[in-house]
Specification:
single chain; alpha/beta; Rossmann fold; seven-stranded mixed beta sheet
Length: about 325
């Protein structure tokens, strides 16, 4: 494993790299780091790939601009495209999990020449539209708690989580995992609730996250705080105007979606659209229920069988 920092304008983007061969670039979600891809990095590096995992801007060793507008999707996709070009003379494969999935989908649309294929985990592709997701959620969750709406006021969720980062991260990671009761992350709460209200901190914690692993995340968020990571949720209001050029467009590169059986954002999306075939955006759209039960939820828990189902796509 080696690390490098690559400049992009005024920013510095930290990247972990393992292996040699064609490049796979991995993009994490909230609240994570390059470290979330460590198992996948070892797996694909052993099979002849250079696997790079970035700290998204705002996280870990990458720069963390203060302005909310710096976290618009166009800016984040530009970071990924810049790293792809810096890491390889040939188009690269992108893996994205959680927020990383929309980032890689939009990178493929905005910077198609540098992207060979795409795999999205947990979050299916939704084409940019005329209405903000936040506006839709304000209607759907009127009078009820919804985490993305709670994140909108600057400083509130940051103060809640930073008051006790180890406990906060354990509760979040558990609520989003396959070990938690179904829909724990989206459990109904009153509108004035806090994010961590009613969340569990199981003792002992499941074996897929050791104390040493947890400390990696704790140290990173102590150093950089949570404003940058949470600003992505606030910056969604900029995307409506900035992504007009790709509104309704399909992804032309070979594309694979992977969702665990308990991945709520995927199952909710599929229920709303009735069938994956209705998504006019990918050559292949697959929900792959091959995760071990304890592995549904977060990419750190080795969804390697499912990843093999995508390998044939970018070898064509």
């Amino acid at each position: 494993m080696r690390f490098t920092n690559i400049s992009h304008g005024d920013l510095s983007l930290r990247v972990a790299i393992e292996g040699s061969g064609p490049v796979i670039l991995c993009v994490h979600g909230w609240p994570e780091l390059w470290y979330s891809w460590r198992h996948q990095m070892a797996f694909f590096a052993a099979r002849g790939y250079t696997v790079a995992a970035m700290d998204v801007r705002g996280y870990g060793g990458s720069s963390s601009p203060h302005e909310i507008a710096a976290y618009a999707m166009r800016e984040l996709a530009g970071d990924v495209a810049h790293l792809a070009q810096a890491l390889s003379d040939e188009p690269v494969v992108l893996f994205g999990h959680d927020w990383g999935a929309p980032i890689v989908y939009n990178t493929a649309l905005l910077h198609p020449d540098g992207i060979r294929a795409v795999a999205g985990l947990s979050a299916p592709y939704v084409p940019p539209g005329e209405v903000s997701l936040l506006d839709l959620m304000r209607q759907l969750y009127a009078g009820r708690f919804f985490y993305q709406l709670y994140f909108q006021e600057e400083g509130i969720v940051e103060a809640e989580l930073e008051a006790d980062l180890p406990t906060a991260l354990r509760k979040i990671y558990f609520a989003l995992s396959g070990d938690a009761p179904l829909d724990k992350w989206l459990e109904e709460k009153p509108e004035d609730a806090a994010l961590l209200d009613a969340m569990e901190d199981p003792q002992p914690f499941p074996a897929w996250l050791s104390e040493a692993d947890l400390q990696v995340y704790v140290n990173a968020f102590i150093h950089g705080g949570l404003r940058g990571p949470t600003n992505r949720y606030r910056a969604q209001t900029f995307d409506i105007e900035q992504l007009q050029a790709i509104r309704g467009k399909s992804i032309s590169q070979p594309t694979c979606f992977i969702g665990g059986k308990k991945t709520r954002c995927a199952t909710s999306f599929l229920a709303a659209t009735s069938t994956a075939i209705r998504v006019p955006v990918v050559k292949i759209f697959a929900v792959v229920p091959l995760f071990r039960e304890q592995d549904t939820g977060y990419s750190r828990k080795r969804p390697l069988l499912s990843m093999r189902r995508c390998r044939s796509l970018w070898n064509r």
